């Protein structure tokens, strides 16, 4: 059996300035994601998934930290494994879309803007609803 060298983390194949840019974006997404855990209209999980993607491109250490975090990691790991979204998150996301549309409607946007916003939000809601739900914890 031939010993093969370990596969390098994707971040090591990028120039330093790109890793710095991705790490900065990742930490910004972590901050917004944490805020989103407390504010019902801000989708925290989406920003944590984006943070993990940024950390994949910038730092193996930060990526491992996020994935192993007891509070922040499970939803990101579930997304990576199966593209799963918990039922509660689906409800909150769809409710947020509805509230957002109400703001667009109340803003006095023209009909074409209302139609475009409705079409986009319905497509997003359809995607969210179609995702599987994570298996219950043992």
Automatic annotation (TrEMBL):
Pfam family of the protein (one): DUF454
Entry keyword annotation includes Membrane: yes
Domain of life of the source: Bacteria
Transmembrane feature ranges: 21-41
Keywords: Membrane, Transmembrane, Transmembrane helix
InterPro entries (UniProt xref): DUF454 (IPR007401)
UniProt protein name: YbaN family protein
Organism: Chelatococcus albus
């Amino acid at each position: 059996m031939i010993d093969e060298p370990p596969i390098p983390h994707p971040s090591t194949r990028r120039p330093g300035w790109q890793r710095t840019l991705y790490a900065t974006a990742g930490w910004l997404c972590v901050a917004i994601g944490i805020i989103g855990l407390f504010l019902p209209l801000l989708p925290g999980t989406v920003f944590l998934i984006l943070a993990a993607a940024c950390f994949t491109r910038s730092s193996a250490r930060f990526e491992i930290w996020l994935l192993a975090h007891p509070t922040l990691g499970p939803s990101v790991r579930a997304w990576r494994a199966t593209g799963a979204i918990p039922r509660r998150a689906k409800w909150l996301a769809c409710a947020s879309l509805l509230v957002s549309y109400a703001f667009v409607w109340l803003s006095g946007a023209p009909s074409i803007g209302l139609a475009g916003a409705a079409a986009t939000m319905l497509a997003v809601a359809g995607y969210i609803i179609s995702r599987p739900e994570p298996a219950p914890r043992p």
